[in-house]
Amino acid sequence: MDYFVELFFSGLTRGSIYALIALGYTMVYGIIGLINFAHGEIYMIGAFTALIVSTVLSIFGFPLPAIIILTALAAAIWASAYGYTVEKLAYRPLRNASRLSPLISAIGMSIFLQNYVLLAQTPDFLPFPALIPDFDFMEPYAGFIGSSDLVILVTTTVIMILLTLLIKFTRTGKAMRATAQDRKMAMLVGINVDHVISITFILGSALAAIGGMLIASHIGQINFYIGFIAGIKAFTAAVLGGIGSIPGAVLGSFILGLTESFATGYVSSDYEDVFAFSLLVLILIFRPSGLLGKATIEKV
Amino acid sequence: MLSFKDFGRACVVALWFMVLTFPLMVIKVNPIDRVITWRWHNMVWVGVGSFLCYLASRAWQIHRDARLRRIRLGQEEEKEPLSRRILQNPSIYRPLLAAGALFFLAFPGLFSTYQTNIMITALMYVVLGLGLNIVVGVAGLLDLGYVAFYAVGAYAYALLNLHFGLGFWTVLPIGGLLAATFGILLGFPVLRLRGDYLAIVTLGFGEIIRLILENWNEFSHGPSGISNIPRPGFFGIQMSLDQSITYLYYLMIGMVLFTIFVVNRLQNSRIGRAWFALREDEIACQAMGIDKTRTKLTAFALGATWAGMVGVIFAAKTTFVNPASFTFLESAIILCIVVLGGMGSIVGVIIAALVLILLPEYLRAFSEYRMLVFGAVLVIMMVFRPQGIVANIRKTYRVEEG
Amino acid sequence: MNPILEVKGLTMDFGGIRALDHLDLHVNQGEIVALIGPNGAGKTTFFNCLTGLYKPTAGDLLLTPPGGRTRRLGGLKPNHVTRQGLARTFQNIRLFPNMTVLENVMIGRHCRTRAKVLGAIFRDRRTRQEEREIVALSISILEELGLADMINEFAKNLPYGAQRRLEIARALATEPLILLLDEPAAGMNPQETRELDELICRIRDKGLSILLIEHDMKLVMSLSDHIFVMDYGRKIADGTPEEIRTNPAVIKAYLGEDVDDA
After folding, report:
1. Based on the domain organization, do C194 and C258 belong to the same domain?
2. Which of A88, B48, B190, C237 is most deeply packed, by most CB within 10 A?
3. Does residue C36 fall inside a structural domain?
4. Which residues of chain C does B262 touch, with a Cβ-Cβ cutoff of 8 Å?
């Protein structure tokens, strides 16, 4: 039973990280209909920035709470800047191009960023310092849930709530929803669509960076390649929930996280990644609109 | 001309990139020894580089806009692209072709075995590029798992030889057929999907194949792979290493010619037209009576066939296969060849394959930047020249009198 | 004799919205039939159901070739519908923009020809013969439609009116029994519309039946043998042009409720 609970919580932790990344995929897809292949790389860059900033701050002798807050801020800001730049360089010029062009551009961007980090930093794994201390009050539950699991769960929940509020109630959120429904019409009623698209990339990237920082500190090491696998898994989660749907992305992420955790816990960990890929292929074949997505009819 | 304002903007862009790349380019930390290395010189490079890149792209933009304006005003004829003028003028392309043919035929005599080996690799990518070109360039299906079919061919030779002692020439067609079968098996369910989903499913499929090869030890010998695969034989004659490399080189030349011949004929056929039409507009295609699924499936399977056959040759060339040779990056390189060469353009793909494979081999200093450049090429081509270096040429017809 | 095309009780729902509501319609052999109605009446949806792009919720679509057996079209894939003898044009032109004019028409021959992969590679006699026939027939169609002098142009470089004609040429190349034209005169000037009028008559005189969606009332009235009027997915009237002109329900649908008081 304890093992089950432990797997359950580790599944939730995984799921909440996937959710932070999947939201970026789903928001971008909802607004410009593009699978942003480079999104996993943004997450990886977020993790790297976090590692660099936290190490520098700790060498300079900052106290732990300050390190955590400043690191999170720096990771989010820089990842957002990367997301914004990527959109501007690689996707915006192609907004009216044939459907293949932005996809190829996105793949190119993903390869570029991966190798950029490889060359600028290192091809090896780097150890990531544990930012979150073990809380005393978590002692009795340590058998199945760690302090960093708790922090990840709480942080993600808070972020999700904030994001929902932002999209439901603010002007920006309304503009985003309008653009997602009909970009031309949104433009006609005076919404600055370019601006909305930039904000979507910035938001998505910031979320991914926070996810990158949390998971890196949880697992304890990173390299330039972590974005590729995490990206595909988060994308799987987004598709599972119905791409373009924000609650769908969260639901899909938790389902994927839990099933992965149980599958590796009870079956075998050799095929951990095969499992996610197979799931992705199966969903796309049998229910491409996902759990909460709507089937679209192409206008003729 | 570039204005003063453009220089101002270039400064802003340079500043933006210097700040953007600051943590990753300038700082390097060692979290264990708690050491920080500051690499300020990188910041200078980034600044100068982005400044110049911005000015270059701006100059290109101004030049293009000015030309378009002149064409619109009728002051300038729309120029045929250089590549097209060469390809449509027999008195230019015939001597070029003859010189090229001579060079490639004499290659193993002129250069060392090492060079020949590199050229074999480049020629393999020519065939892979032409194969993927059918799928991506002609039929417009973005296949990111092309390397899976390459792996199928390579492992087909390795395993069939290991267990049944089958020779290279027997396995070459089998590898092609096996890859085609895999193409159909995968294609049947996924080709109904929209283009972007197809891309990610094929990517997933490619990774699944690699992960299975890595983990299923009893079948594929896991990450250590299979070694001692025989090189191709020639009527049982014993050959030295040099001889067998020369032999493989000519075999590869034959393969390239065969591929060009087949791909060219396919493109100018009923099937080829249907592929092009499918890339242009799926719905109109169906309304014209074209079976969408079957046409896509043919493209997918035929593309996979080439990958399968080159896979067999790869196994024979290196005499060793392991899963590490079949990563997503391999698919990306082949995609890059197609995109750089020009979607659907045979000449373009050949040139692009030679350039992209040979250049990093000969510019050793530059080879660690290989993948970085490949990624950048994909983006830059899409933004500035989506039709590739050699745009695809449509066949022209004459109205016959009477 | 059976009508060549008969539609019975055709219904199409999108989610909760009923786009077509028990629509009945028929086209007799050799007739030009027009389908009119205000924007959003469901005319194009009807074409999409007919050609298999949408799967209708209910109803029957029956095709009876002259002297042949009746076939159901409902549930067929679009390419099979085309093979059965329905060819269409699109409201927003859907040519293959980066293919030449001739190639666009040659694509129309696809469903009437057979060459396979091996034939394409080996170019045996039959394949070469077939290819020659495709080219010859496509060129003759283009000549008939006055496009013969631009066969090697990219379709995207054609002027608007010529693009519309090219779409018709492409549809004709599939050897249809019925030609479905979705607003062929949209965006044309009066001169081009007159030419289109003559062209449609010429096509009819060759024995094809034509079903046309059109907003240009002058064209509809002068061409049609029979007119169906739709509004809100339902048929509200049908008859000869003369009958339609004076039908109060039609006038109401087009001009609004208060027409009697005016």
Report:
1. yes
2. B190
3. yes
4. 121
- pLDDT tens for chain A, residues 1 to 300: 678 888 898 899 989 999 999 999 999 988 888 889 899 999 999 999 999 999 999 999 899 889 999 999 999 999 999 999 999 999 999 988 887 889 899 999 999 999 999 999 988 899 888 877 777 777 777 667 778 888 889 989 999 899 989 988 999 899 998 888 888 888 888 889 999 999 999 999 999 999 999 988 888 889 998 998 888 889 889 888 888 888 889 999 999 999 888 888 887 777 777 777 788 878 877 887 777 776 665 555
Q: Does C93 touch chain B (CB under 8 A)?
A: no
- Percent residues over pLDDT 70 in chain C: 97
Answer yes or no: CATH 1.20.120 is held by domain A2-286. no
Q: Which domain holds residue B21?
A: 4-72
Q: Is residue C93 situated within a structural domain? A: no
Q: Does C254 touch chain A (CB under 8 A)?
A: no
Rounded CA gap, B229 and B225, in Å? 11
> Per the CB < 8 Å rule, is C174 touching B396?
no
User: Which of B268, B270, B392, B393 to substitute to test the interface with C, most C CBs within 10 Å?
Assistant: B270
The pLDDT of B284-295, averaged and rounded, is 92
**DSSP per-residue string spanning B182-246:** HHHHHHHHHTTS-HHHHHHHHHHHHHHHHHHHHH-HHHH-GGG-EE-PPPPPSTT----HHHHHH
| CB contact at 8 A, B14 and B8 | no
Chain A residues in contact with B135 (beta carbon < 8 A): none
Element (H, E) at C188: none
Within 8 A by CB and 6+ apart from B103, the residues are: none
Chain B, 2 to 31: residues with Cβ < 8 Å from chain A are 16-17, 19-21, 23-25, 27-29, 31
Tell me if B395 is assigned to some domain.
Answer: no
Contact B285 C107 (CB under 8 A): yes
Asked if residue C79 and residue C147 are part of one domain, the reply reads no
pTM comes to 0.89
* Residues C239/C227, Cβ–Cβ less than 8 Å: yes
Q: Is C48 touching A (CB cutoff 8 A)?
A: yes
Question: What does the pLDDT look like over C197-226, one tens digit per residue?
Answer: 999 999 999 989 999 999 888 899 999 999
B204–A280 CB contact, under 8 Å: yes
Q: Looking up tokens 């396979």, which residue turns up?
A: C116
B48 and B183 together in one domain: no
